[in-house]
């Protein structure tokens, strides 16, 4: 059997969904961050699949920019996480509720 | 052969990404993330993007996951987390939303008005000048001609990210300080 780009698109969609659901149900900020990486990777796989299906190498070039943005995002995001953890020990995403309306 | 490899690594990728979500220990999540990233790199090779596969392994599995592990161990949050949910309806709602997202993406991927017409031949990826040979040459030609301006902007983005993360990781309001002799643990 031949593996068409559609197969890869289905896998990418599944990985993206798993990442999105994981982002919604996990509380640990580091694991939520890894779920964002999963979603970015699924989009990269989609780009490469369409580069093959549409016969256009620009899809592969765009993956480079996604990689750069992912690297910058990880550097800044982990810096924010370190700053948060320095301020309060063992914070999960639920503890970061400074903007919440207490009166309600 | 291609089919066997595809299904093998599709299984690894999906199991790895599920494991990232359900693993209690963040270190296990990071390791399973590496499995998923390497499977995606195999998919890149199968889709005639060997350069991206290499970059994927070096940048993602090599740098980003190591950064994750550094932060996990630095902050000491590698203890197991209880998966008990404080908001009772959140998890089913997230699963329902996930199913909706999956259906939407699969629906869009199957329609050419959303994706564009597929090319006739799946064997060579064109782009750039037609006399160029391999994948690296094609990607480089497009990157340094059509995408030169975005490429320069990414350089600025990386510098900004580096400066920003240095500022964030520093203790606020104080210059970066060296640990004195008393602060350095003796053991």
Write the layout of secondary structure elements.
The complex is a heterodimer of chains A (104) and B (187).
Chain A: H1 5-25, H2 29-53, H3 58-87
Chain B: H1 2-22, H2 26-46, H3 50-75, H4 90-109, H5 112-115, H6 135-145, H7 148-169
Q: Helix amount of chain A, in percent?
A: over 70%
Could you tell me which chain pair has the largest interface and how many residues each side has? Answer: A-B, 74 and 91 residues
Into how many domains do the coordinates of chain A divide? Answer: 1
DSSP strand tally of chain A? 0
Shape of chain B: globular
Largest sheet, strands/sense/barrel of chain B: none
Low-confidence stretches of chain A: none
C-alpha termini separation of chain B: 54 Å
The CATH C-level name of the domain at 1-80 in chain B is: Mainly Alpha
The overall pLDDT average of chain B reads 81
Class inferred from helices and paired strands of chain A: mainly alpha
User: Which CATH-level-2 architecture of chain A?
Assistant: Orthogonal Bundle
Content of β-strand of chain A: under 5%
Mean pLDDT of chain A, to the nearest integer, reads 86
Number of strands of chain B: 0
